[in-house]
Amino acid sequence: MIESIYQIGRALLEESGGGRRAVLESLAAAPPRDRKDESYVAILKLDSRRLSLDVELRELDSQKNTAARYLWLGNAPGNDPQDRLTLDNLGYLVSQTIPNLLGEGRIDPKSDLYSKLKNLREKLYIDLGEPGELGIKGGGTYQRNRRLWDLGRLGIPGPSREDLRDEIRGGTNPKNIPQRVVKALRDHFPEIPERGVLFTLELDGDLLVDDPAYHTYLERRFVDSAFTGNQTGRCHLSGEYGPVTTDMTRFRFKYYITDKLGFASGATKKGFTSNFALSKEAYRALLVGERFVGRELGFSFAGARGYMIPDLYTVEIPRGFPEALVRTLRSIRNRTLFDIGRVQAGELDEELEEFREEHLASGYMINLLFYKQKQAKFEVLRLIQDIPSYRLEELRAQGFETGRLWEELYGDEARDLTLQQIYYLIPVRKVRKPDGKVEYLNKKILAFYHTLISGGLIDRKELTDGFMELARAYRFGNTGSYQVSAPKEGMEDLTLVRYLAQTNLLLAFLRDLDQLKEEEVSQEYLERLSLDEVEKEYLKRLGYDEQQAALYLLGALVAEIANAQWRLGPEGRGGEKTILNKINYQGMTLPRVQRLATELFDKLRQYRYTDRSGERRPLLQGRNEAIFAQAQELLTRNQRGWRLTPSENVYYLLSGYSHRTFRAMTAREKQPA
Fold first, then answer.
1. Of 28, 18, 26, residue with least CA distance to 86
2. 553 CB contacts (<8 Å, ≥6 apart)?
3. Which tens digits make up the pLDDT trace of 35-90?
4. pLDDT, position 261
5. How many angstroms from the chain centroid is the CA of residue 414?
6. In 101-240, where do the E strands start and end?
7. How many alpha carbons lie under 13 Å from residue 138 in its C-beta half-sphere?
């Protein structure tokens, strides 16, 4: 993975020319977005001569007015001094940013920018004074927030120095003091959005982020500061010998452990050079590659955030196109989102897809990285490496073919089975954290996707156990503990039968891929059964063996009884399906299934239906009687060698119930009103 990110960064730097400004723009982070997925930059336009402030709001886009244009590189991490002139936190800009940039070793004191910032600090800022004057101990938090904009000098109503000092004396945390200034600014400039906005400074008509002295400082901050140890060695990415660093703290991805001596060769600090070291060129390229991946190649899938990282060694980048590399990478992301089912055909960017078809027809390799971010901690949940592009296309195509079974077996229109839709068929528990946020426990399903994409075998018994876990959630109203939505009122039974139908299609999907781990199935028994063609086709196409078929047939009889009970409700519909209470959703042994069969026999004699002539007849006759007899014969013949688990017994029984019930519901919907 590190090689792929390095390749991307190096290629971007080559395409941009590698100048300082180009490097910094390549390090741009993704801007924050509002609920409409829009981003803005609020330019705070200061006039130092008249000492006035105005605000200009501009919408950001992905072409010209980008976050890179304003050198949005993210806020300084952790407790580092906030020293960026474009931020997503207005509180930093009206307090510590300019004083921090004037600190020793930052902006060159001989530069014009330093003089401008110093002049601003003298004209615009108030100092809340020494901590002892306020009756507090002080410390880093207070020192960072003691200097703030005096809005009164700008002619804007806002808190005075004494107001803010009194708040601190009254116990207000110093870190909250800048928000008083922010609130006053927002009240004065209501056009500033609450979300999805960056803030930057313009002084006397010039954006401060355009000043070369600021660029020099940022490059030193991001790159040069990692090369202060005078280490030499061989770069593990470029192979060049020369000055290197083992300082990986500025990288978001944790490629190697380089801050714990126990992991170094010889357990000494110098040993890190043998483990993993980077030249300045490789360090810069890796930073740029990381930022591009984070900004352009992110996606969400299976309840997790992820990055798709192409391997550029496998990509032929066309020459002669503006931003050919960026278009290549975006077209790969565009197609990958389609292949995993995150977007549908009509949502594909047609221009990018045409570009991919014309220039990337020979294929490429991609890595899928799934991660969890908690503050500064970046945790890799799963890395699926070296995926050929044709593999994802194969899975999407097979999902389309399997989706056609939906119409053939259930009488409803065909449904595409995508990797995204599979996410809702396998249980993913969710927990609510003390801060109210929901976390999805998705390591298990990510492991499933890893096996699926890599072509490995997936155990049927484990899958059916999972299917039954979600089936119980639907049946007993416990969907709130999982990744699925609660059924609408009155749709509970339909939701359950549809879910069970979809899980059977997933098994067919895996079987068609030769990736389902199960016993060899003989279907010669189907020739001896007297069933409708619809039922025979279902058992044949879904690969049911004799034991599974016996349970399916019992489930079909459960559906007949449930339907008769449903018709006992008001106006001939909506009655309670009490027969379903006879099924133990935790699992049923074979003896318990046999006892259920006896109960079904009694219920089939008890309940009646109205035939075409208007006569009321018991359910136990004709086709149902034949189905019951054949189910019993299959149960008896397989009794001694029964292989299915109690959970599988219930799953295949409910599959029979689902198939017949869902076909009946579909038929009713198609009837003219």
1. 28
2. 627, 628, 630, 631, 634, 656
3. 999 999 999 999 999 999 999 999 998 788 999 999 999 999 878 889 999 999 99
4. 43
5. 27
6. 125-127, 147-149, 197-203, 206-207, 232-234
7. 9
